[in-house]
Amino acid sequence: MLNKYPAWKNILILIVVILGFLYSVPNMYPNDEAIQITNESLSINESDLEVVTTALEAAQVEFFGEELSEESLLLRFDSVEDQLRAKTAVEQALTENYIVALNLAPTTPSWMQAIGAGRMNLGLDLQGGVHFLMEVDMDAAIERRMQDNLGNVRTILREERIRTRGTSLLSNSQLEVRFASQEDRSQARSELIDNFPEIQFQNREAEGMFILDMILTADVILQIQRDTIQANRTTLLNRVDALGVSEPTVQQQGVDRIVVELPGVQDPAQAIRILQRIATLEFHLEASIGSSRTSYETFEYVSPQGSQMVDVNNDVILQGDRISNVRSSLDQNGLPQVQISLDAQGGNQLNRVTRDNVGNLMDILLIETKSRNVVTLDENGADVDEVEFYEEKRLISHARINSALGRQFVITGLTSREANDLSLLISSGSLAAPMTIVEQSVIGPTMGRENLDQGIRGVQVAAALVLLFMLFYYRVFGLAANAALIMNILLIFAIMSSIIPATLTLPGIVGIVLTVGMAVDANVLIFTRIREELRAGVPPQQAIDAGYNRAFTTILDANITTFLVAAVLFTIGTGPVKGFAVTLMIGIITSMFTAIVGTRALVNLMYGGRNVRTLSIGGIRPAKEAKA
Prior knowledge:
The protein is of the alpha+beta class. It folds into four domains: 7-26 and 444-627, Up-down Bundle (Multidrug efflux transporter AcrB transmembrane fold); 32-105, ACT domain (Alpha-Beta Plaits, 2-Layer Sandwich); 139-221, Alpha-Beta Plaits (2-Layer Sandwich); 222-442, Gyrase A, domain 2. It has helices at 7-24, 46-58, 80-93, 110-114, 124-127, 138-159, 182-192, 218-242, 268-276, 344-355, 416-429, 445-499, 506-535, 540-572, 575-607, 623-627, and strands at residues 32-39, 64-68, 72-77, 98-105, 121-122, 129-136, 167-171, 174-179, 199-206, 209-216, 249-253, 257-263, 278-285, 296-303, 306-313, 318-319, 323-330, 336-342, 361-377, 383-400, 408-411, 435-443, 503-504. A four-stranded antiparallel beta sheet has the order 2-3-1-4, with helices on one face. Strands 11-12-6-22 form a four-stranded antiparallel beta sheet. The two termini are 29 Å apart.
């Protein structure tokens, strides 16, 4: 029978409509302004809540809905003004170890959150926040790799009892080893070439010395740069996630830069502290008795047995970028420990050093890059707040090497809290190379809200105009197209909110407005085709069937080409362009469903299976009158 869907297809369409409505509804629930309080080294407890509430009461800031967990404390407020005042009051009451972040707390009912329904993420331009453009020091990354290689070259030659006349770095990608004889150089080259497959070896003579140059090839340098930018991006994302910043964006831009966007955060100095509080590990041997004062550094080591001063050799056995996995656990005696896994090269390096130093002591340094605010004077003598970066080194392990270590080993002698913190800090904070902030900007919450309100108003105006036009021009068929258009917008919101979580930006709203116009294009083609069939004297039921079937190919071709263009924009574009492309691609997919399947289902319900003589499609008289 013409224009009748089987029951299963109608049920499937109904299920899609219900799910689209259900997963788009959470966007009607506004978020509450909130502050989230965390502490990197300690858990949050009732005493912290008491300090915070006392500070807010003293500042006469009203709050509600406090949520206390071991990791964080969240407080809700009625307005942005109260939120900002509360942040200032709480920061003054707590120590620097606490992170007080501006946040947005959802008000979606718990049963909706349980099925994965939530609000879509909003970009900086719609809710405010801070934007950073960070540059990775690639030269430092390459130099760090060569410093690592330099230490291992010395170790290997010392083990093989091959005497040298010195080793040094000529540049960040080249080191040289000097020998007194050609025989020593040849022996060293045969020993080193198997341990450093990524290195290019070259012989030369200068000033009576036989020199072996070790040079990183262009391909290896390129690979180091790729690995470094990816490692730093992962580090920053994990670090921001661990500190409670809601829905961060961390994207690579170019070959050596990373864009970091932190929605809801309004304090750039605090955001910098979050980003720069990055940690890595360094493995050293304890300095031997009688070593030159310039060859070691002294650190205080605090253990359950007390504290002591330890002389740590400056030569680095292993860098933290060789750590592939880390987690805290309990040993067979129920005591806390941190299990560390190394990559293949890191495992070989550590095994070689520890094999020849059984019985000696090995030290592990935790190195954190932090920042502090300093006040300087500009050329006019006015005070200027600047951010100063510095490294803080701490000795976290001082243990005897009982046997040769491999790719996996454990750090013991820690408390349960120290083991958990160390595991989190290393796994989320092993920075492959230093980074500097080359650009930063702040978008206030008021401006973001104005952008969002204007964007929503634009969608409403565009949709209203299209709805009126379709209803006036196509009558009952226009009513079906309008219902499908509303469903199309709901499906876009549902997909972006829950099914494929995406960030909505101001250009993304432009993509939705464009989709509103494109969604009815398909119906215009279909309805125009139906009109043509009716004018040709085709019976209404056959005209409906022909209109949908014959227009489908044209609609499909047009949407495929537009989708491909949007996919290209998403692939090669930057943030704003990607935001536009995402909503456009999603809108094309949903409009194909609603404009063709959705309107066909509604038209079938109105006209299918009936003896229809006229169609309310506008501008068409009954078929018999048309023939006359």
